[in-house]
Known about the structure:
This protein is α/β, with parallel strands linked by helices. Helices cover 42% and strands 22% of the residues.
Amino acid sequence: MIGMELRDKVLEYVKEQISALRVANPGQYQNISVVRTNSMKYIPNYFEKGQFSKMFFLFPDPHFKEKNHRHRVISTYLLDEYAYTLRVGGIIYTITDVEELGGWMKACLESHPMYETLTEEELEADPVVKLLSSAIEEGQKVARNDGQTFQAIYRCIMPAI
């Protein structure tokens, strides 16, 4: 598993968390790393076509101002890039505590020809879905504050021609 982060402080924090996990659990967590990069620009330079079975976008920056919406990590253009690295049948998971951003991400995924929504049965059977809002610190903070989260979970498909 690899995390891609642009901000130095967040990168260092994640590195520290990984190191702490490795110290507390010798021999485990050796397949986790984080790299400082702009995934929005360079993801195809790091990964091959169809290399991923899952991609996660957990509590991304909402970029509230309309002029900054182009910086959002989920957009129609970037979904093309993500579809390149996701194998057919791969799942893209998004979660946010910002309702407007949640609607934006869902609308982008819904309108893209290379993604389809999972059925309720698939969502209930997927163990990852249950962990999205509780397994990371941001999700735990939202839960402590009795906040809402907004998820969009979609499968990468081969579009009908």
